[in-house]
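Progress note, sequence design subtask.
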């Protein structure tokens, strides 16, 4: 209908003429209360932000001449981060003459990526950045989904343990 007629109808029923689909041909308008429309669209935007996935990047710093036990400890932290569904930025810091041997860093990062391949994959391959070499690891989709689904289950288990009588808890452990 013509714009003038739509504006007249809106004025007659004491409502506003709101354009809801400006990109459509012809543009789509509705007769409604504009304040209510703004409020509802703000609610939808807030709900969309709440449901949005937050990506967390954890950082793990290593040295090229790391002790085997320290390497295993750092690898355990990386595994824990990936199981939680977080990305991990692994940084190898070179000092002094170590900078002339970047292949040590490449070898260390390749070894780490091979050892955690069942939990995550290399999102950004190793690259030299001044004195540091950086690689980004990301969890596999299944790991991320399990981590998100596992959080409520863990809370439920903690809640069940508090309400279970000690005799039943002892019976459960002996049955296992």
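Output:
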């Amino acid at each position: 209908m013509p714009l003038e007629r739509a504006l007249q109808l809106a004025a007659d029923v004491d409502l506003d003429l709101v354009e809801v689909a400006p990109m459509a041909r012809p543009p789509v308008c509705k007769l409604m209360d504009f304040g209510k429309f703004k409020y509802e669209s703000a609610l939808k935007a807030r709900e969309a932000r709440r449901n949005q996935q937050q990506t967390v990047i954890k950082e793990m710093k290593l040295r090229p001449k790391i002790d085997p036990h320290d390497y295993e400890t750092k690898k355990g932290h990386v595994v824990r981060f990936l199981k939680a569904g977080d990305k991990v930025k692994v940084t190898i810091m070179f000092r002094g003459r170590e900078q002339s041997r970047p292949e040590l860093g490449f070898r260390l990062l390749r070894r780490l990526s091979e050892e955690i391949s069942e939990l995550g994959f290399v999102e950004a391959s190793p690259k030299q950045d001044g004195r540091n070499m950086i690689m980004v690891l990301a969890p596999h989709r299944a790991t991320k989904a399990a981590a998100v689904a596992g959080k409520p289950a863990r809370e439920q288990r903690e809640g069940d343990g508090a309400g279970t009588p000690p005799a039943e808890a002892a019976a459960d452990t002996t049955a296992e």
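The domain at 3-51 is CATH 3.10.20.80 (Ubiquitin-like (UB roll)). Work on this subtask will continue into the next period as scheduled.
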